[in-house]
Every structure is written in C-alpha cells, then in structure tokens.
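input
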Amino acid sequence: MAEKKSRRPRSNDRPPRRKEKAPLYAAVDLGTNNCRLLVAAPHRGGFTVVDSHSQIARLGEGLAQTGRLSEPAMNRAYNALDAIAKKLKARRVGRIRCIATEACRKAENGGEFIQTIQERTGLSFKVIGAQEEARLALIGCHNLIHPKAEHILVLDIGGGSTELSLVDAAKARELGLKGMLHKPPIKAWTSIPLGVVTLTEAFSHLDEAEAYPQMLEKAKDYVERWAEKHGVREALSSETAHIIGTSGTVTCVAGVYFGLERYRRDLVDGKWMSHEGCHATMTELIEAGPEGRADFPTIGEDRAGLMLAGCALVEAVWALAPQARMRVADRGLREGLLLSMMRGPKKRRRRRGGRRNRKAGPATEVEAG
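output
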C-alpha cells in the first residue's frame, strides 16, 4: 500500500488569504461656498458611496471687494477640512484627490492658503481651471443624458462662478464613459464670473424687489453673449434637447418643486422639471423673502440668502431653451473626480533616484486624465 502523502505545511503558519476589500477613493471639493467630501469604492463600472460630508464655509465671502480670502473665511474652511481629514484617516482612504475652484483661482492669497491647508491637515490641493471644472461636472452627470437627445446643456452653478457646457449628446453616448474620460464631447463651454455668493454680494445694497431684476439682467448679459457666439439656441431648439442642472441651487429648488418635507436624494436626483413649473416654484421662493425661504425644509437658513441669485442664474440660462426640460443632478464635480481616478487613464509619477517621490501624510493624490 502506497504511503499517503502528508499535507504541505503552510509557510509560517499563515492563515489562508482573504478576499481583499475594494480600495477606497475620495474626492474633496473646496468651493466658494461649500466644502464637500465623497468617499466611494469601485463597483460594476461605477462606484458605491461609503461616506460623504458637506459643510458651508463661505470661503469666498468678501473676495469680490478685497481680492483676498479673509481670515474668518479661511478659518471656517480650516475647520471644515479638519473634519474631512479626520474622516479620511478613520476610513483609511489611500486614494484621494483634492481640488479647489473659483475662490482660490481669484484670490491673491489663494496659493498661501493652499499651502497652509497642507501644513495643517496634510491634504494636498490642486487649484483647477474653469474648463476642467466643466469637464468633471459633465463626467459626473454622464448617465443623465437622455437616450434620444441630440444636444444637452450642463449647468453648474457655484458660489463664485457658473459653468455652462453645450454637449454633443449623440457623441457622448457613442463614446461611453471611457471615451468621455479621454475627451468629453463638449462643443462649447464658458465660465461666467457670477455665482450665488458673488451675485448676492454685488446687489446686497438693494432690497430684493429691486435686486432680482438686476441680477437677472446681469446674468442674461453674460449667458446670451456666449450663446449667440456658439449657436447654443439653435442647438437646443430640438424637442429632445434638455438641460442638466447640477448645483445646490437646483437641488434646493427641486425639493420645493416636488413638495418634499425633507430632502431625499432618491426623490430628486435624475428627476425632471418643466420650465413652467420650475418658474412658478422660483417665483414662490422669490416672493417668500429670505425668512420665508428659510422655512422651506429643503432650503433652510444657510441657503435662504443665496437662493435669489441662484434663481436668477437658473432663469437666465433656461431662457435659452424654455421648451426644454431640466434634469436634476445631485451629482457632479466630486463624482467626476472619482470616476476620473477609478476609470480614467493614470498619469505616471516621476521617479527621482529610482524611487517614487511621495509626500508623507494622509492624502495621496492620484491624478487622472
């Protein structure tokens, strides 16, 4: 009888390998009004959200008057970013990209502020341009393009600027996410220097009844000059054309439009609003005044004072295609960042002396396409 072979002992008595968990990615967006975090794990060509955080820091408060970020504004941002850094450390997130937008682009002391953030929190921020901001917003909303649309307009209202992108929808569907990450089919884009914070501050010396028509006129002047130059009205004249609205303004208005007693993303994201119905909702909000707007459960005190400017920007843009519907996007820049990191082409890191040049700290920045 042949001798039975003994089982081979495991080296160092190691336990059997366990299936590794999906790595965590994080996107941090430091805007003119808000500071936002989104943590996610890759899943079936997209991702699953693990954690999120949003905190109003009003970083751009007073920037238009002084050209600088104020000490109180920077301190609010530090507090928000301290909370985010703790979340990232607790989650042990290793793949992080932090971006800053309009306020840091414009401020004389924006570079110093970014450096101080890294020293205080370990988070390494990159100030991105307006065109990159528009690109990422489109990528974040790519699956909200209607399957029959020929052209769409992506509207991204921020605190300090508003980005508009006229998109070849047919080309977007043909390319898919992978192709859009390489080269989004944006036919024309612009960044107008008006956001909910800057536009509110520009007319803060007037009462709201006087301010709103002037806000609307100022916004229309920028929007229509761009639209005329690039044939935007003609491109959006088709019955299938639509707008994708991605911003706190749009989601807040949508909460009122749909009569929500509390904000729920699943009842807002991807839903449609008509121009007539949304115009009636915005009229109701304008007439309610700041105190009345604060009573709406999907707006609250923090947003109430900025909604007048937000409504003016929405109306100025929608006037380009009043027959079109707007699809609400509770997604955008952060989602675009995550998809770029997870699915986009990775840039090779430069090596020095045969070793990768990595900075210590909780934030390892991964650049994508």
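quick obs: Residues 1-11, 352-369 have pLDDT under 50 and may be disordered.
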